[in-house]
Structures are given as structure tokens and as C-alpha cells.
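Hi, here's the filled form for the chain we discussed.

Project: internal
Contact: R.S.
Residues: 287
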Amino acid sequence: MSIVGRGPAGVLESAGVDAPAPDKLWALTVDSEVGWYVVLSGACDIVRDPTIEPCLTVCPVTLVDPTRYAQLRHGGSSPREFPLPAAKLAQMCSRTGDKAFCPVADQRYVASVDKTALVHPDVATLRPLTGPQQGRLALWAGRRYARAAHPDDVEEQVLKRAAKVVARLANSFDTTAQGKRTLPQQLVGATDAWLVNAAGKTVTLYPVLTESLARDAGLFDTAASAIDSKAAYAAAKKLRGELAAAVTAGSGFMIAVAPTTWDAMTAAEYIDRPPWTWESDPDPLSE
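And the returned structure, exactly as it came back:
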């Protein structure tokens, strides 16, 4: 991976390179710690004719400490690092049984690779991810470039504080017996994804419900064979109260919760509501 910069930089320090003069341009080539790279390009670009799409985008596989690896797998989602199956990669790297071997795809460093180079006999390939895991990797790669640039005060005063409330409800949903869950717990448990829209001082969260999750969470109307919309909106009202209490007092922000479904949204609405990633996303390596 080739990196170009000017003057002293942290990447040079971590690579053991002496700091250059403040105005000096430099170029540095960095290899993957374990000799493997992750293809970030979509399937359509991979199979497209090289005369049209000659290169693939890749990022290196790097190692993190076990604590960071556990965070990435159990709640600490990151737009920069994606945990990879340690056992499968360890076998290819002769590190079987090494508990300190914690590989991640590191999207902080990306490069383009000639597509035809991948069919060279000296280039090995490995497919360690299952179908669902590949889907989560694709979503993760896309989020890196599709993240909405909310103002800092929206992130600090609203979204970070709302994330703590949702995380608490999600964690308690798993440990609370069915029939004893509160409406906000049920709403969070029935949510497949969270979308967000910030307009001025109003921040609207859109929990996207699915029938299967709503059935498990207790927000499904069996007689109507559909999501119980009346219960869902009652749950949203209670959740909004908890979220409003968490927003910084005096900040002037208003928060709204509007339950929806994938089928109920238009394409324009989806584009206007970017995904909201909170710290307790599910384990990306779950089967």
C-alpha cells in the first residue's frame, strides 16, 4: 500500500521512519502484517471486463489486540476496522491456537490492484466469510463512504446520547423474559436497522421494523398477520420520552421516533435517511 504525505506524520513514526523536514514530501509502502488483503470492490466490479473496470479496491489485514477484537465483535462497531474469522486466517498464517491473533480488515489504508494480477499462480485466495458475513462486510465497506456528515452538535448532543439509551434497551431486551418487556424494549427488539434524519434542531430516528423481529418482540398482530402498528407507535412515543430525557438539557434539540418498514419507504425517503450506527450493532461474524 503506497502512502504519500508531507512532513512528520504518525504513519511514519509507526513504521520506524525518521521524521522528515516539515515541508518535505515523502512516499511510504506498507505491507499487510499477515500478507493478506481484503477485496472491497463489489461483485459487479469484480466480474466486469478489465477494459471497463481494470482494478479492484483492497485494504490490508492488520492485527489488533484481543480487547479491541472483542469490542468489534460485541458492540463496538467501527467504520475503519472489521473483524475477520481468526481461526480460518490463523490456519493460513501458521498461527493456529494463537489467542493474540486477532485479524481485522483495516479500511484506513486502501489501494487499487490490477484485476488480472489475482489470477497469477503466486497469488493465493481465501474465502473465510459466510454469505451473511459477506453481506455485513459489504455494508461496512459502504458505510465508510456513505456516512452522513451530521453537524458536531447533533452527534455530541443527540446521537451519542441516544445510542446509550438504545444500547441499554437492546441489552435488557435479551435478558428480560417475554411478557415482561417494556414497550421501548419491544420496539428496539423489533428493529432491523436504524435510519436518521437531522433537519435543523429536529432529529428524527427511524426504527425499521420487520415482521419476523416484531413477532419475536411481541409487536405483531397475529389476527391481522401484520406488525401491530398501534403498539409500535405507542412504543415509539415512550421511547421518544426516554431519548428526549437523554438529550443535553438546554441544547434546543428536539428528537422524534417514527417507526417504519422497508416496504413502507420510498427510494427518495431511504436516500434522505442514512443509516445510524450505534455501538451495539450485532456481531458481524455471527452465522
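Let me know if anything looks off before we file it.
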